[in-house]
Each structure stands twice: as structure tokens, then as C-alpha cells.
Amino acid sequence: MKNRSKDIIVIGFALFAMFFGAGNMIFPPKLGLETGSQWALGFASFTFADAGLALLTILALIRGTGSFEHLARRAGRFPAAFLGLCVFLCVGPLMAIPRTAASTFELAVAPIFHTDGRVLFSIFFFAVAFVLAARPSKVIDIIGKFLTPALYVALLVMIFQGILHPMGRPEAAAGAAEVFATGIKAGYQTMDVFGAVIFNVLVASALAQRRYQGKEALKTAAWAGLVAVVGLTVVYGGLAYLGACASGVYDKSIGQSQLLLSVMETIMGRSGVVLLGIVVALACLTTAVGLTSAAASYFSGLTRGKVGEVPFAAAICVFSAAVSNAGIDSIVAFSAPVLTVIYPAVLTLIALSFFDEKIKNDWVVRLATLGALVASLLKALSNWVPALGFINRLPLDSLDFGWLAPAVLCGLLGLLIPMKQTEEKRRESVRR
Question: Is 344 inside any structural domain?
């Protein structure tokens, strides 16, 4: 017998915990610090770029077959494969997974135990993550039933202490457009849209195990996603406010980890450092387990099952342990330009998927995706190539949506290119 309400809560809690990892912990306070008195606007744009787009991604995937490959199929075989690989590498062993261990060490282990044993800790952390991730059928239940409640209670205690004992008053900030763009960029950095792509593997599996199909599966996933988004919104708002109250105390150049650590130590003393350590450890472990399990499933699928998920999970954990020793700031610095390039193309595919039945010509999807990708690539390169500065004058560039106009224009040009008869037959077979 299905207990839909219970399933929604368990899956929603699991999604919250998997989304709420290293970036979700360190970016909102820094965002609050940078936006000061306008922290609410920065928090709103951050939540939109993070939780809002992640929910849309989950819904887009569940509407299809549940896979990113299906979502991206109309962009062409190579672009779909390329973007899929980029997503799983970014949110997997290259960036997101290593960041979980680096954050746990810098925010929990080092401040509490005063140790510099980063290498030994990374080995221990990923050994635990591997043991839990090696049981993919149990990941949702383990995280949703046991780890998330402890994480959320600890987060609320920390936030309420900061509200009751604020460090100061938020100081005046920059203009609204700059604040909005800052929130969008910080939302990109969490990689939760990519996380939604990879976590959907686990969500789809959990729904199938509970015998949800078709519209019932979509509705259950939507409600579970909403539970996760509401939970994230509450926490983001609290953390951003804590950072805003510190805007008159710390310089904006302070590192993300150091800011959060300093705020908690000022508010709650030594107990704040310990509480923060518990929160970070739970948040990062749940994310690492979810990402490792889903990434291993994806890479196993690329081999058509010839290599099992367990060997891939082991390889991911070993590689991530090595990368994590670079530290949070180095990982964030490396990931920023990569995400700036990849994110717009993925967002374009997600948006167009909701109009899949109305878009008859695959060239619309192909060129729109290509337009977003090229525009974002030029945007990233313009920081080093002054001749590409023209890309910064595109509409909505100040809000970090400069890629939108090229995507729309290229999509419209796609309408002018006739589809081959073979492509039309393929499209018809897919609809059937």
C-alpha cells in the first residue's frame, strides 16, 4: 500500500538534504554580506536561480523518461552527450563532490580539532560516503528518514540564534540590478540545477520502487520538490540575513568559509563553532552520498551495465578525495567560469522541454542551445580577451542573462531550416 503523504515528505526531505551541500551553506551568508540592506532582493534572486530552477528541472525530467539524455535529445546526439557529460562531471568528481569534503574539513574538522590533517580526513570522509552510496536503493530512505531531520533542526537552531543575537545592522548596498545579478551568480555556483539532473536518477528510482507511474509520479515528484524548495527557501533567507547583519563588521573580501565560521563564533562562541561543524558535516555528507550514487549510476549506464555502479562509486570517491585537498576557494575559483559557460545551455534545454509538443522543428532546440552556449562562452572569454567586450552589451547582461537574447534569436532562425524526412519520422516515433 502506498502512503503518498509519507512518500512526499521522505523524498522531499531527501531532496532538500542532497541539494543542501557545501555551496548552499557558504554562499547565502556571503551573498548577504555583499548585498547588505538589500539582502532580501539578493536572497530572492539566489533562491530563484537555485531552488526555483532546480524544481523546474526535476519536473522537466519527470515529464520525460527521467533522463537528461531524453531531455537533450532534440539538440542532437553529440550536443546531448557533451552537455550530459559536462553536467555529471561538474556536479560529480570535478567540483561538487570534492567541495563537500573540503567544506567539512574547513568548517568542521579544522576549527574544532585544530588539525591540518586534510589528506587523512578526505580519505575517511569518502570512505563513509562510499559505504552509504554503494547501496543506491536505500539512499533516499537513509537520507530522507534519518539524516535530514537532524540537519534541519541544527540549521534552525543556528539561524534562530543569529536572529536573536544579530551582529549588527545591514549596511547600504549597491543598486538593485547589481544585487540581483549577484544573487543569480551565487545561485549558479551551488550547481543545484545540475544537481537536479543527477538527483533525478534517485528520485525516479524511489518513485518506481513505490510503484508511482505517469501523472501520479509527476505529481508526487512535484510535491516532493516543493517540500525541498520551501525548506531551502527558509534556510537561505536565514543564512543571508546573518551575512547581511555582518556587512558592517567584515570586509567583502573575506572568504566564504571564514565568514560563516566567524559569524557563528561571534554569535554563539565555541558552541556555535561546534554546531556549525555538525550542520556542515551532515549537509555535506548527504550531498556527497547522493551525488556519488547518482553519478555512479550514470557512468555505469554509459557502459550499458558492463561496469557496475560500485566500481564507479569507488573511482569517484578516490578522485574526489584527491581534488578536495585543493580547498574550497580553489575549487570555487575553478568552477565559476565553467558553470558560466554550461549553465545557460542546460537552462535553455530545460525551458524548451516544457514546449516539446509545440516545437515541431528540432533545429529550434539545436540552434537555441548553441546560441546560449556560444554567448556564455564568449562572456567567459571576455574577461581575458578585451576584443570580446561587445558581448557585455547584450540585453539583460547586467542581470547575468545576456545569453538569453542570442538563444531566442538562434531558436527563431531554426524555424527557417527544414527538417529532413528521417528526422520527422524519428520525431513521430518518439511521440508514439
Answer: no
Same domain, 78 and 138: yes
Instruction: Report the chain's terminal Cα–Cα distance, integer Å.
Output: 31
Average pLDDT over residues 83-102: 84
Residue 139 sits at the vertex; the CA angle it makes with 160 and 222, to the nearest 5 degrees, is 70
Looking at the structure of the chain, the number of domains it has is 2
189-209, pLDDT tens digit by residue?
777 887 777 777 677 777 777
Is 243 part of a structural domain of the chain? yes
Supply the range of the domain harboring residue 362: 357-432
In a shared domain, residues 285 and 401: no
- Give a three-class secondary structure readout of 336-385: HHHHHHHHHHHHHHHHHHCCCCCCCCHHHHHHHHHHHHHHHHHHHHCCCC
Residue 351 within any structural domain of the chain: no
In a 3-state reduction of DSSP, which class is residue 253? coil
pTM above 0.85, yes or no: no
At residue 67's C-alpha, the angle toward residues 11 and 19, to 5°, is: 40
Instruction: Report pLDDT for 317.
Output: 92
Report the CATH number that the domain containing residue 269 is assigned in CATH: 1.20.1740.10
Does residue 35 lie in a domain region? yes
Give 320-356 pLDDT, tens digit per residue.
999 999 887 788 777 778 878 888 898 898 888 888 8
Q: Are 203 and 67 in contact (CB under 8 A)?
A: no
Helix (H, G, I), strand (E, B) or coil at 162: helix
Residue-level pLDDT at 263 = 86
